[in-house]
Request: fold
Amino acid sequence: MLNRRELLGAASLLALSPNVARAQGKNAAEVAVEAAKKFSGTEISIVWEAGLQSLDPLNYSGPKWEKLTGMKVKVVEVPTDQMFTKIMQDFRSGAGAYDALNVIPSWMPDLVRAGALENLDPFVDKFGYRDELKDIAPAYRDNQMTVGGKIYGFPDDGDVMLLYYRKDIFEDPKMMEGFKAKYGYNLAPPKDWKQFAEIGQFITDKMAPKTYGAGFFRTPPYPQYMFQERFRMEGGKFFDAETMKSTVNSDVGVKVFNGMVAENKFMPPGVEQWNFVDNLANFLQGTTAMTISWPPYGRWAAGYGSGEVALKWVPKSQVAGKVGYALNPLGRDELGVGFALSVSTTSKKKEAAYLFIQWLNSKQISLERVQLPYTLRDPFRTSHYESAEYRKLWPDAPAYLDTIKKAGETGLLDLSLLQQDKYDEAMTRAISSLWTGEDPKAVLARMASQFDAITEKVGVDKQKEVYKAWASKPGAYP
Amino acid sequence: MLMNSPPALSNRLSVFSDRNFRYLMIAPAIFILLLVGLFPLIYSLVVSFQNITMTEVDYSFAGLLNYNQLFKDVRLWQALGHTALITAIALPLELCLGFLLAQLFLEKMPGRQIFVALLVLPTVLSPIVAGATWRLMFDVRFGPIGQILSFLAGKPVSILWMVNPNYVYPAIIICEVWQWTPFMFLLLLAALSNVDQSQLEAAELDGASYWRVLRQVVIPAIRPVVTVAVLIRGLDLFRLFDIIWALTEGGPGSMTETISLYTYVIGFVQFDTSYTAAVAFLVVAILSIVVTIALRRTELAQ
Amino acid sequence: MSGAARKRRKSGILALRYSIAIIVTLIFLFPVYWLFMISFKTPDEIFHVPPLWVPGEIQFSNYWVLFQDGDVIAIWNSLVVAGLSSAIAMLLGTFCAYSLARFNTGGRNLAMWIISQRMIPPIAVVFPIFLIYVYFGMVDTYAGLILLYTAFNLPYVIWMMRGYIVDIPLELEESALVDGCTRWQTLLRVVFPMVRSGLMATAVFTFVFAWNDFLFALILTRTEVVTFPVMLTHYFGGQSNFWAKIAAMSVLGTLPIFIAVTLMQRYLVRGISLGAVKG
Reply:
């Protein structure tokens, strides 16, 4: 029987170990804050996408962290198309100017191979973060966190592309009648791309020029994600697993490209020049009845955050309350892009940087961050999807969260090989050529040969390994 | 003309020549130039014979690996082709338009100074600003170009300038010519103002037609300036980067990629450091050859 | 043709010239007008179809945002960097030009080497320079950019000023020297005033080159010394092009240049003519 003193002694010994921190009810955020206090006064830098994305660390998380720990956060805003450059440049020169990083997961193989990202496993164990990592939705946790089984980044953005459609049009009795009469099935979010074309054409016939059936962004750099999804769902494979020769120019590829070109016909004129904002503006103004994009559309369409100064450039939503959410045709959605938080190997303040990203990514803080009206970070944790607080944000929020949760569960991974940006570029260039009227077969043939050239330059065997590893993931091919 | 001081000059001043003075005068400038101009070239040369890529840093001598790749690289030669195309079209256009403008403003007119000051504005804008402005102007829905064309044509005109391969080069050239014609205009205005009046009058009195006067009096008189202008502008066009970056970033695809843009892509996006160095050397070599030939020809002409 | 008829014809031609001049100027300035206009529009007006040619009202909120966000620091950074580098380049370059012009120092080889420096495509040297700067800790510093722009403007300054100086008759300097002036005094009191127009014209263009540079500013800075063109590219986002900000920042960034050019414009035509003709 322990006497009081011994009990106290034992208790204090236990209290010192990090695991007990959790046992005592301290969550990962609190653990990070506690551990970071000893770095009070130091400044860490974090690379973040310029523009809207940076408002989070600039206005909210950065100041909050400083208040809690005394650590200053310098946000290095970099436009997306310069991010990879700046990170590699800094790493290559050994300058060590960046401590923490935002990286797009498909870059991770390249960055890890070059040695630019710090392995986070030791830190995760030291500060007991494994538990909360499990809460991250499987789609992101299993695919955007590790390279070769080791942790190099914390997925921080639930990017997935889903279908937004005008509930009011789809549920309009006259439209439903007319559609059923013409096509023989009920008007509902399209289950495949044939239905998509039929519904789109029907709506355009009935409602243009006020409203068209659908609209998509068609200009670089995003359409290639839509292509990746559609191509795979129709049965296509990027490569022959044995020879590593590219098979994008198969019949499936031609079918997909033909379909994409045909769709432009019932979309508003000039759609080939649409970028992310054009597409958004048109949907919010009610010009298009269907579109596919990332989660922020859903929030903005509902009018969430419309009062924010930072969102002044977002056109006022005329369709609040009229928007439905669904999975894309053929049922599996691309996890386009995404972001992960990492630590640079050349940083001189690795532990401090790590603590900041653990805090950002933790259950408690990330829930706050994804609810910021101006944020571009989408829910990515199971706890986010189930959060009562989030579900109250606007009337359709529960449906919204459920849809993105489902989309995430069955999400398709972005192709992620060595020198992925070169393959991405080839795809982007091919799609651009498509809008100029070039024959899809020729475009695909060119894309395939470009793929092969890249593979050769990287080294067929090396790439084959990486491809095999990627393709074996459940999210790679349906 | 370009290089030689009259011999008498140095002789007369040699009485006062102070050896130290003349070298002191050039020392700081030369020092800075060496700092920034010499090391990078040496570095590039060395690195181009190594094999440093994004994922591997291999300092061993890799022979002509990168230079061999130069010849096989289709995209590189396409980039050079794009650059040559833009230069070949934009340069004469700027020259001619600049000449016409200069003729317009040649004779004195009240308020000429204001016009000149205003016309200079496009040239002093940042090329990034120029590119951004025209990008918005060409926008098929929010830009006025489409509106104006539709008005002129009497029916809706919907051209996707930035995406349609038939229109993307015209778009770039319009923006580039818009920005730099005033530069040519200023230079030519100055040159034309300096044409010997007496010669002009003599020719007119002789009853020579406008074209003959132009050919035999004006053009020879302004040739030195035109040469300088063409050289400067030609070099700048070869190195074109900012304006294309702001307009199309080399797109659609890599259709409007100039050599500078392509070098940026392989150097700062793909981090093929060694290959980039080899390409950089190729570019410098081409430029040097072209300029040497051009300079020699202009000197011969004198 | 009678005197009166000739006069009428002359004024007729003048009127024609004026009309053409006005039309041409309007065409050339139209894009600038458009840019100005966007900076005053509200987001709804910017995305209005068909495009609006006149904003509803002149509102400054787009500019105000730039001040609030602190982005305006980019203008200040550009002023410091471009201003100082131009001043230094003009000083050192003119000295060098004098030496070349009067003493033919280094002969033809030096002159050719200096000119060749201007031909170097920035893209070819930017990465090695970045590495040097990292080694000396000069990345993202004012001194770093100033040094770089000075170096890149020197060839132009030397080239131009040499031309102007060669034009000045020797007698003036000789008589000054005979009067007992030192070399330096001759330079400062006789030569500089004589090439004043050339100095101004060259200075303006040097300033403009440094102000508008994009590539070096992009690679050699991170957060401390963001200059105007780089700040501008931050507004071309993946998700959105903040046209309002782009326009407002562009206007702010062009004002200093425009002011400089306007102040110097009487030197410009004369200055360029003397320099280019003698080249």
Notes: Residues 64-278 of chain C form a domain with the MetI-like fold fold (CATH 1.10.3720.10).
